[in-house]
Design goal:
six-stranded antiparallel beta sheet; Thiol Ester Dehydrase, Chain A; 3 helices; globular; alpha+beta
Amino acid sequence: MPLVASRIEEIHRSFSGQGLMRTFAASLDELDEGRSVISMPLSDRVTQQHGFFHGGTVGALADTACGYAALSMVPAGKAGLTAEYKINLISPADGDRLIAVGQVLKPGRMLMVCQGDVYVEKNGQRKKCAVALMTLFVMEGLTSI
């Protein structure tokens, strides 16, 4: 079921309010019910000692993509917080751009399970560099947007 325009606008406002995503110069490129795509360019603020994207950056982007995929399915009046996530860094994130695809695997009333696949792009070629599994806790009384 596609998202209504007002919900898409709310989620984009929420994304814009994240200081970390602004620091990363990240953008919310795609959003649909249960799925989001976030990308960011390489900069010296997000690298490790070899010049690759830092693993913490990769994890943060995966967590955020999963979070917004889940938020697209959270009922009005509720919000979500990450309860936990696990990430496997399967290849060095050596490239010009990082792309995280978040997908809801199991929606629930209190817990949602999501998968985040992270790709690094170099010279127009994409390579998967990480896979994350994230659990989001659905909460009442917390403003999500």
